[in-house]
């Protein structure tokens, strides 16, 4: 092979491997679903934030790093952080704002409020409650602390993004869930302790501590969500256009199936695996009533419709499942 062609092939391979995630079934739709779930404020989320804030406050006041680390293991901030990141990349304002509101509500309302209430209560009943070195660590007293805090937040965001894109097939496995849990702890390092320090400072009447911890929290949120997670996924090639392509292919196949007599939409599934921005594998599982005949050219028709609507080449596989219904109702 001539050197020029070889270099062109290497360039195309690198572009394909790095810019965009390919050969993963329903990948971009799955990302959107994860983001939607991460943007919802649930009762369980509120309880977990309360527990994390209580642990963090106790660890900070006790000057016990182990307890503070324990609070990070409980804090549920991976979901809303991903919602902000993915919602921004997919230009979905509802998901982006939902994730941001959920994140800030958990940190500044629940987390800070819980820390303030616990500290105020302990001040009246427990002697020797005061500002500890663990608290002062979150007040950014030096340039070194500020720079390293930002570095930690950005690194946690990068790790969260790489977990979704570097080896996306692992995400749904038990090992992938372990990785997500570990990344959730990394994210909480940057969020729950400073949020608790804001509340502790308010309880002590130390507005200087609360102000500095709040600034640290804001910097960490920006570093985590924007400069870490969103930027890394953008560099990885995650684009709204691929989500649109995946959805359009699925909708095209659905509209083709609707026109076929005997096929029941309920229970039928359409899985789309993007191979590149111009090629896809489509696996269709359809249910049809026993005795009804499905056209032999159905897969070809779906592929032609996809080509006509998206200009995307596709390999379509149609799996037919016959069913019967009997009722005495």
Can you walk through the features of this model?
- It is built from 12 helices and 3 strands, in the order αααααααααααββαβ.
- The chain is mainly α and 329 residues long.
- The protein folds into 2 domains: 20-238, Glycerol uptake facilitator protein (Up-down Bundle); 242-323, Alpha-Beta Plaits, CATH 3.30.70.1350.
- The protein has a 3-stranded mixed beta sheet with strand order 1-2-3, with helices on one face.
- β2 (279-289), α12 (298-310) and β3 form a beta-alpha-beta unit.
- α2 packs across α11 and α5 runs antiparallel to α6.
- The protein is elongated.
- Mean pLDDT is 85; it is low at 7-15.
Structural class: mainly alpha
The top level CATH class name of the largest domain: Mainly Alpha
Architecture of the largest domain, CATH level 2? Up-down Bundle
- The geometry reads as elongated
Which properties best describe this structure?
single chain, 329 residues, mainly alpha, Glycerol uptake facilitator protein, Alpha-Beta Plaits, 2 domains, three-stranded mixed β-sheet, 12 helices
């Amino acid at each position: 092979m001539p050197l020029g062609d070889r270099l062109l092939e290497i360039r195309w391979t690198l572009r394909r491997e790095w810019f965009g995630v390919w050969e993963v079934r329903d990948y971009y739709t799955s990302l959107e679903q994860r983001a939607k779930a991460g943007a919802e404020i649930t009762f369980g989320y509120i309880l977990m934030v309360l527990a994390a804030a209580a642990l963090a406050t106790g660890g900070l006041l006790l000057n016990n790093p182990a307890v503070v680390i324990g609070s990070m293991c409980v804090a549920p901030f991976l979901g809303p952080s991903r919602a902000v990141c993915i919602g921004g990349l997919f230009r979905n304002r509802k998901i982006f704002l939902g994730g941001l509101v959920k994140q800030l509500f958990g940190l500044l309302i629940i987390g800070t409020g819980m820390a303030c209430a616990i500290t105020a209560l302990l001040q009246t009943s427990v002697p020797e409650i005061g500002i500890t070195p663990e608290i002062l660590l979150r007040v950014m007293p030096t340039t070194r602390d500020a720079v390293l805090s930002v570095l930690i937040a950005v690194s946690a965001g990068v790790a969260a993004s790489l977990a979704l894109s570097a080896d996306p097939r692992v995400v749904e496995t038990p090992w992938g869930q372990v990785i997500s849990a570990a990344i959730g702890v990394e994210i909480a390092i940057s969020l729950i302790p400073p949020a608790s320090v804001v509340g502790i400072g308010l309880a002590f009447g130390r507005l200087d501590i609360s102000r500095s911890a709040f600034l640290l929290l804001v910097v960490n949120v920006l570093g985590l969500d924007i400069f870490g997670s969103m930027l890394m996924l953008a560099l990885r090639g995650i684009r709204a256009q691929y989500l649109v392509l995946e959805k359009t292919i699925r909708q095209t196949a659905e509209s083709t199936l609707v026109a076929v007599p005997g096929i029941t939409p309920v229970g039928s599934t359409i899985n789309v695996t993007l191979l590149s921005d111009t090629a896809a594998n489509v696996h269709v599982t359809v249910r049809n009533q026993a005795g009804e005949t499905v056209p032999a050219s159905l897969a070809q028709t779906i592929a032609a419709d996809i080509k006509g609507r998206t200009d995307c080449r596709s390999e379509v596989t149609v799996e037919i499942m016959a069913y019967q219904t009997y009722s005495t109702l």
